[in-house]
Amino acid sequence: MVALGNGLDVSPLGFGGMALTPVYGEVDPADALKTLHHAVDSGVSFIDTADVYGGGSNEELIGRLLRERRDEVQLATKFALVGNPAGGYTDIRNDAAYIRQAVDRSLQRLGIDVIDLYYMHRRDLRVPIVETVEAMAELVQQGKVRHLGLSEVTARELEDAFAVHPIAAVQSEWSIWSRDVERNVVPAAAALGVGFVPYSPLGRGFLTGTVDAASLGDNDFRRRIPRFSPDAASANQAVVSAVRSVAGDLGATPAQTALAWLLAQGKRLGLPVVPIPGTRKRHRIDENLGALALDLTPAQLDALDAASDAVVGSRSADPQWVSEGRE
Length: 327
Hints:
The chain has helices spanning 29-41, 57-69, 96-110, 129-141, 155-162, 185-192, 230-235, 237-250, 254-269, 282-289, 298-308; strands spanning 2-3, 9-10, 14-16, 46-48, 74-79, 81-84, 88-92, 115-120, 145-151, 169-173, 195-199. By secondary structure, the chain is an alpha/beta fold. The strands form three sheets. The protein has a seven-stranded parallel beta sheet with strand order 3-4-5-8-9-10-11. Strands 1-2 form a two-stranded antiparallel ribbon. A two-stranded antiparallel ribbon has the order 6-7. The longest helix is centred in the last third of the chain and has 16 residues, at 254-269. The protein is globular and about 50 Å long.
């Protein structure tokens, strides 16, 4: 187990539930449930979801897992986004009234009494973050939530929030091709003793070398991300080539190598890091877990660090959507 912050212990690798919704194409719910069970069978007990994934259907799916295996899972979910990843978001809500409604709806869909880690999914700039965290802290006092988390916040936002209530984890995109968080929020988290949970640690699949950006389906969420545009995706193959080269030296896969880099980066920067790669395929869970046994040499780390400088395109179509645009 890995200690994040505020006494929250989780498996060293988590599972991102968004992949088990139609955001990357259609999903078979029965097969998705088998994937979740396989993750827990394999030792991946930290399961991450959000109320907006599948319009709540992802929480309901994970609720089916929890009915049988609640004691084996550290469950994280989120509030704030109105809409859905596939069709687009219509609003962000961080106000106290919305939070009180959202947590009760999530608890009902999940079929549980308490959420282990409850995140603010995105910042509503109309609401001071202090007010948001005060409302979240009430949920801890009421026994509905055990730990608080924040997603895609700036260093200043994290510091202001932490002054109100301990924060167990920050979740943001972080990988070889998304390193902007290292400038400000990662050092702030390390100084405060807050763990970091990188989402999309495999670059939304791109770093595995198995994604053809030109062949993404019309409903695929990635079509709206600038670095997946045809020109950018072509240029970003240089990053994939660097990952493949190091993977070959290690006798590992590109996915394992990208995850191993991220785990090593956490050690270099002095904070606990628990990536949450998502997948629909059970064998990919086994593959990802292989990253935990890899040790990268200084030269290999340097090669991957250099590859990140070659990334073309932003990780978000809206800079304000993520912390990078507000730092």
